[in-house]
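Assess this:
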Amino acid sequence: MTAFGPLLGALPTQDHDHDVLLIAGSRPEVARLAPVATAIAEANRIRGLTVATGPDPMAVHEAFEALGVPADITMLLREHPGHTPAAVAATLMARIDGLLVDQDPSAIMVYGGGMTAVVAAQVAFWRQIPVVHLQAGVASDDLLCPFPQEANRRIIGQLASLFLTTSGAALGSPLGPNVITVGDTMAVNPQPSDVRFARLVRRVEAGESRLVLVGLDNAASSEIIDGLPELLERDADTEVVLFGELCDDDAACRLAERDRAIVVHALPLAELVGLVAAATVLVSDDPELVADAPGLGTPAVLVDGPHAAHPGDSIRSIVSPAVMSTVMQVLDADPRQPAEPTDGHEAVRVEQAVAWMFGMSTTPKLQPPQPSATDA
């Protein structure tokens, strides 16, 4: 097994004229790129290769697996580079450059404004490899909010050959035929297999409920569970899902008996990603899960974690006694509207746009099926 080799199986046979590397460096990026990989495979006119990289490539590898799209290439690191942007960029830049030389793709695709995405886009630009930028998040007019993702997103937007947005043109991207609306590909991911969570997500998407997702593993976080019933009594549209090692706590058992509360010991990764994305706020003592939340569009509270303030950062580091008041503030300020309806073709639209970029289609936009002569 080499640093650039697949951990499982072999690379798909190269029987296409064009290939694209779908490069992910975090679980939120996987959540948007995995459906695209599936759409590319089903259309079978481009070869798509999923790449798991970033500061923790094995976590990304496992996320691809959980969403049913195994990583074709997993870039292993000799050691964790740390969390500072400079350290992550320095570690990944030469590795991704070597990957591009080794694979010589027709294009790469990245999502959002993470450090992996901006490094991959920069290296691809230097190698004169087209960059497809899938940006399903909300554009900001503040360069420091969120930090550093918004600045990274704008940098990628200037380097990209194809810029795919949720709706309309995005700030910081060139206007023209290379800005195409595709929607949020995360909507294409499978719904939770647990019927309780599937119904909960539908209620949230319809604007009928707000979800407070709580993941606690450390004994020092147990007092937070005592405050969760107050949230249920305070707002009739609030629902709580509690998971983690503290689910055997007496307070957790009492919470499980309440309406609008679900208590489970563990959540499969695919369901966890979907619930984080649906939540109004995440509360957890797991720093890695909290770090993923903003990329899924959810503000997060890190319980008793190290406080590293960033301008506009949606991660808040709070000591246990102050968590509930902070959660209530987030609920009161919740700007979310009911989710926009999805037609399930977001990832297919991405594949169509990429095929157009390669000259394989006369239009970048997915055309509705034409009625046949027998339908007339």
Notes: The two ends are 57 Å apart (CA to CA). The chain has two domains: 19-184+342-357, 195-332. The first strand starts at residue 19 and ends at 24. The chain is about 35% helix and 15% strand.
